[in-house]
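Running this now, will post back.
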Amino acid sequence: MKITKYPQSCVLIETNGKKILIDPGNLSEGIVEPTEFKDIDMMLITHKHSDHCFPEYIKIVKENNPNMVILANLEVSSILSEGEIDSETVKIGDVKELGNIKIEIVRADHGVCPSTMKPGSLPKENNGFVIDDGKLRLYHCGDTIAFLNETKTDIILVPISGHGVVMEPLVAVEFCQRMNPKLVIPIHYDSDKHPKGAEKFEEEIKKTNLKYKILKNKESIEVE
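Update: finished.
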């Protein structure tokens, strides 16, 4: 399984001959052109916020990958339909298949930052995804604060910017310890609206036995 990181929570997963793109948002502008995403089989979108769901960008990706399937919750699907972008509506608990890959739609609890979130901006629907290729399970947490979680995973992509919106670095590490994955990759620390960088996360995870990798934007790692 090959994992490539892009700004904020955007990642490209390549496994079993398929490419899955998650959460292409507005922070990717100027760093990765939407036309760079080629032969994408499926796109997964966790929630409506523009740093995860940027319709103008998604439309170009879709035009360049006409057979790509988009999975999104009802709230996101409604936004995409306004831009004439077709998607398949999913909900927490659903399991979809892409060849011999299973995609599980799982819980995520979006937090609130009173100083940056306007009334009505909290997503009505929010989710994470588990990608199971038969050898490895990868868990993209989406935007979530901590909750008691028994998800079985080998690789976890965990949000770390804190600021009330998602987990603080220390909590993110503790959240991962409960699941004890083979590899932890931090996401969601690129926005000027929230504390940036992964330094505090690295300081905390070094105190544990967890294996981790902090990826630069457009950097990849292969996991077996």
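The first helix runs from residue 55 to 64. More later if anyone needs it.
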